[in-house]
Design brief:
single chain; 439 residues; alpha/beta; Rossmann fold; 3 domains; six-stranded parallel β-sheet; four-stranded antiparallel β-sheet
Amino acid sequence: MSVLAIGLSHNSAPMALLNRVSVTGDTLGKLLHDVALAEPVAEVFVVSTCNRIEVYADVDRFHAGVTVICELLARHSGVPLDDLTPHLYVHYEDRAVSHLLTVACGLDSMVVGEEQVVGQVRAAIRLAAREGTIGRVLGDLGRVALRAGKRTRAETGIGRAGAGLLGLAVELAAPRLGERGLTGRDVLVVGAGSMSALAVATAARSGAATIVVANRTRRKAERLAARPGASLTRVVGLGDLPSAMAEADVVICCTGAAGYVITADMVRVERCGGLVLLDLAMPRDVEPAVADLPGVTVIGMDALRENRTGAATDDLAAVRAILETELAAYRSAVDAARVAPLVVALRARAVGVVDAELARLTGRLGPDAPSGRVLAEMAQSMRRVVDKLLHEPTVRVKELAGSPKGEDYAAALGILFDLDPCAVQAVTRAPTPGQEELP
């Protein structure tokens, strides 16, 4: 089996197409299950954010995997395959692994070094775990990607390149908001998901005068309000949006709804300073006609894409060094795992030989057999001798597993010790301890 990644992002597709391809909620769950049920696929998880959708799968055949995943992505997004194909990218094996690590570290983000993306990757892996579409292969890969993302933020200054999409959106709104940004402003946050929580926290840290959250489900908005440091003024339903917007200076939209949440006929600009809408949703929350209203400024994903920021050369080099280290560690782990069943089967055979010889010796000695304590010491000595004899070949076969002839060395070991292939396969299929414990 091999890792396959297929997707499109702000780097490969126009924002209008990304709007159409957005897969969230129940549709995302259905996509996961349909891909997992496809014949060439063993495991799958999907990273779906405001500026990318990527399918990561463990497949046994490259071309069959590409075909079925592309077809299912087109079907569940409602976008014809012919419209998707020119903008899709495909990565396989090492390139797929390297791409996921690059995404988790924020190097492939619209705002280089953004902090939200590692959380989005974590959410994708957890969703796949809940849906039962991820196992040992992609679970291990996910752990490596999340570890790389965590190290990037702890060991480098890549995060200085930008505070994420929200920070960039506030910067782009500076001509209307002025130097104080959100300080002293009346802020309305539409939605109650993870991006909304970030918007509330940012507004609170910036010293907003009031913070109101509008959401279709009041319970979710109230849970957000209960978070430490939320400092919400009140919670309203989507039916109260027009009146809530009339009292706001800044509206931050991030619902992920299928249609427009804010339309032109809902907007009444009553403040002398006008109204700023930061539309961070994909598909977009704000109807395009809103931007044509007098006194209204709309900052959407198109503007964020055009103004994405870079990172310092030293920070980029530091992150790439982390990526290389983690990628090398992952490759070594995969190579070692490939020969691990052979090593386990070899040691199991050795234990069987020792036990058989001990039983034979005890039977031959009969009444003259040593006491239980002496016999136990003899058994321990025999096992130590066998362990020492097997130590070097098993260590060497693990070291050589990643070499060009690694599989040949492993096969030779199995032939030399006359290992039963069925015994090796039984070890391969057995679950590993902690396999279900995904990040």
